[in-house]
Amino acid sequence: MPTLQRWRGRVHGVPRGVDLAVLYVLVVLGVFVALHTQSHPDRARFVQESSTNLVNLRRSPFRVIVLSSVVVPGKAGLLILVPLAAGLVLVQRWLGRAATVVAFGFGHVGATLVVATVLAAGLTHGRLDPSVARAPDVGVSYGLACLLGLLVARVPRWARLPTSLLPLAGLVAVLLAEPDFTALGHIVALVIGFGLAVLVHRGAEPVARSRPAGTGAGAGAGAVAD
């Protein structure tokens, strides 16, 4: 019993809203360390087999969608864990654990499926090289892009339009300058996040209006910044 009480005390001592970020970062780092204990050929094979390319999506879609979200193949890619952790913490403190998981999943899965559809259409019409069907596509950036798009709802109303247009314009510029399916995936994930932000904002308005006068200022503003 004393051991259980100490464990509970430690859990309650964890800052609110950081558990998802800590867990996710630890999983990604664990996969990264395990991956880099293998030889280069084995590492490359694992990344290829974890990719959400067309070949893998046809064979084992659920497996690769899950695996691809925790695989960071290079050391430089670990830098993305910093904004990812910040995004997870901000969204979890705002909307809760379940909503954060759903939003991240929407971004990762939604962008993956849209990119796969575009690639399949391009291959069917002979507009793309057949090698794209096996091109590696792993990482956490689709989910992160969706979280960032969702967080636009927390920005003051006057700043929402520029806050939305700047990253979107940047991604579109990258796509136009060097057409690549991952750039398209990031645009799709960001737009999914914008859509979720609209839904959350509209859902919060009736709640704010239903609160008695004098009680909604703190809670209403805490739900969605205006």
TrEMBL record:
Keywords: Membrane, Transmembrane, Transmembrane helix
Transmembrane helix listed as a keyword: yes
Stretches that traverse the bilayer: 20-37, 64-91, 98-123, 135-153, 158-177, 183-201
Record flagged with keyword Transferase: no
Pfam families, per the entry: Rhomboid_2
UniProt cross-references to InterPro entries, sorted A to Z: Rhomboid_2
Name of the featured protein: Rhomboid-like protein
